[in-house]
Design goal:
With 271 residues, the chain is an alpha/beta fold. Helix content is 42%, strand content 18%. The chain folds into 3 domains: 110 residues, Tetrapyrrole methylase, N-terminal domain (Cobalt-precorrin-4 Transmethylase, domain 1, 3-Layer(aba) Sandwich), CATH 3.40.1010; 106 residues, Tetrapyrrole methylase, C-terminal domain (Methyltransferase, Cobalt-precorrin-4 Transmethylase, Domain 2); 41 residues, no CATH class. The chain contains 12 helices and 10 strands. It has a 5-stranded parallel sheet, sandwiched between helices. It has a 5-stranded mixed sheet with strand order 6-7-10-8-9, with helices on both faces. The relative contact order is 0.11. It binds S-adenosylmethionine.
């Protein structure tokens, strides 16, 4: 009989944030595949669990997932954990999960902490719909594309960021966010947990003194929502009120609607 692959969420700081089912599963599995075995050992020691650990991280995901699949096909039960939170969410996991599904091996989620969800629910921003973008890419072109996506986002945006890169990311966001609300969630579930619901300028002023793990929750772009709802005529009148020239209005509307400038020009020829 084939084994089972358990995807086990672990705490994101406070060691008490682990479910009874997660602890029982960690005790029952034959092997624990861990992103960082030393980190997982601390958790296991805290709960007096002794288990065979193997490392499974970004740089060996390909080969280690093959090894794990072999063990699963032999009938072993494997628990997959990352350093913190939910595996597969900006953490290793995807690869072995995909391969397990291809082999018809049962994949079982053991729910628990996930940093982005906890940052979102206490941000005070819209939680009905959201876009999780993980970490912004470092590659210039890809980063620009993601920033554009954030600029036009019609849903709340969630970003992970490493502490030492947060200043740079806030600087990149400054130009595109204008007066949109932003919440920086820091050190969730730990002693210094805090939610900074401030303007981006205020955050930039404080960032050098902020330590620990951080997440950004960004309000959806109200402008985009408005533009989608406005007719072309209403959009024209809106820009006219703002004092833009006819030519500039036409260029702006064409760009925003991704339409040919001449088409818009024809519509407003008589205006
Ligand atoms: N798999 C994890 C999860 O379920 O949230 C995320 C892992 S990702 C490699 C690490 C990033 O998550 C950090 O850079 C930070 O943005 C965020 N993060 C993790 N723990 C956090 C915490 N306690 N407080 C704030 N942010 C945290």
């Amino acid at each position: 009989m084939k084994g089972k692959l358990y995807i086990i969420a672990t705490p994101i700081g406070n060691l008490e944030d682990i479910t009874l089912r997660a602890l029982n599963t960690l005790k029952e599995v034959d092997i624990i595949a861990a992103e960082d075995t030393r980190q997982t050992l601390k958790l296991l020691n805290h709960y007096n669990i002794s288990k065979h650990l193997i490392s499974y991280h970004r740089h060996n995901e390909d080969t280690k997932s093959d090894y794990l699949i072999e063990k699963l096909l032999e009938g072993q039960k494997i628990g997959l954990v990352s350093d913190a939170g939910t595996p597969g969410i900006s953490d290793p996991g995807e690869e072995v999960i995909k391969k397990a599904i291809e082999e018809n091996i049962e994949v079982i989620p053991i729910p628990g902490a996930c940093a982005m969800i906890n940052a979102l629910i206490c941000s005070g921003l819209d939680t009905k719909e959201f876009t999780f973008l993980g970490f912004l890419p470092l590659n210039k072109k890809l980063r620009k594309e993601k920033l554009k996506e954030i600029e036009n986002a019609t849903k709340t945006v969630i970003l992970y960021e490493a502490p030492h890169k947060m200043k740079n990311t806030l600087q990149d966001l400054k130009d595109i966010l204008k007066n949109r609300k932003i919440c920086l969630a820091r050190e969730l579930t730990k002693i210094h947990e805090e939610f900074l619901r401030k303007s981006i300028d205020e955050l930039l002023g404080e960032i050098d003194n902020l330590k620990g793990e951080m997440i950004l929750i960004i309000e959806a772009s109200q402008n985009v929502k408005q533009e989608v709802e406005l007719t072309i005529e209403e959009q024209y009148d809106e820009y006219k009120k703002q004092g833009l020239s006819k030519n500039d209005i036409i260029k702006k509307i064409a760009k925003e609607r991704n339409t040919n400038k001449n088409e818009i020009y024809q519509m407003f020829l008589k205006k």
